[in-house]
């Protein structure tokens, strides 16, 4: 019978899970702060190391890793990017700290908007009938198509394409309404 894993192992597992989940957003964030994207991998490595070194403090400060990790990691990423750019200043033109702060704010806002849009699309898709959702998603699924669905259902492809257009319009309207409602409430 094995003994329970030490707290540090559980903390490491949680950290790796959170970092892996948030890495694409962090990478986009850092890329938006770097002129031309040069040094992206170096900065990302430094961000990951710094986040790990400070993760126990982050958790000890009462932060909720599931909801607060991304914002905290963005702050670490911003400072690591500034540090990288300060070091690179000798090589060529780089942004000053004020420009980086503005770019960081814009990148965070864009990431929030993107997250809100994805959530709205998922909610609107979930509210659709299964058959409508399948048709709408069929054009984006490998190996599935409107023509194949038409052949399976015996319906004319032209009619399905017209229905697909209506569904797209309905989805767009639903997403816009959800985002507008969120904007007026927040």
UniProtKB/TrEMBL annotation:
Superkingdom as given in the UniProt entry: Bacteria
InterPro entries reported in the protein's UniProt record: RNA_pol_sigma-70-like, RNA_pol_sigma-70_dom, RNA_pol_sigma70_ECF_RHOBA, RNA_pol_sigma70_r2, RNA_pol_sigma_r2
Domain RNA polymerase sigma-70 region, chain residue ranges per copy: 18-91
One Pfam family, short name: Sigma70_r2
Keywords on record: Sigma factor, Transcription, Transcription regulation
NCBIfam families, sorted: Sig-70_gvs1, sigma70-ECF
Name the UniProt record assigns to this protein: RNA polymerase sigma-70 region 2 domain-containing protein
Organism: Alienimonas chondri
């Amino acid at each position: 019978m094995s003994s329970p894993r030490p707290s540090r192992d559980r903390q490491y597992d949680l950290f790796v899970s959170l970092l892996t989940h948030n890495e694409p957003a962090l990478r986009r964030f850092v890329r938006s702060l770097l002129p031309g994207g040069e040094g992206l991998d170096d900065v990302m490595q430094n961000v990951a190391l710094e986040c790990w070194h400070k993760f126990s403090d982050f958790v000890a400060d009462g932060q909720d890793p599931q909801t607060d990790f991304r914002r905290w990691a963005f702050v670490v990423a911003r400072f690591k990017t500034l540090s990288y750019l300060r070091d690179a200043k000798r090589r060529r033109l780089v942004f000053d700290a004020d420009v980086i702060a503005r770019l960081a704010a814009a990148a965070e806002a864009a990431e929030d908007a993107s997250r809100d849009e994805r959530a709205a699309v998922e909610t609107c898709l979930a509210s659709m009938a299964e058959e409508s959702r399948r048709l709408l998603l069929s054009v984006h699924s490998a190996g599935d198509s409107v023509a194949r669905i038409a052949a399976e259902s015996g319906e004319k492809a032209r009619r399905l394409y017209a229905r697909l257009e209506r569904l797209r319009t309905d989805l767009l309207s639903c997403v816009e309404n959800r985002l507008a409602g969120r904007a007026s409430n927040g």
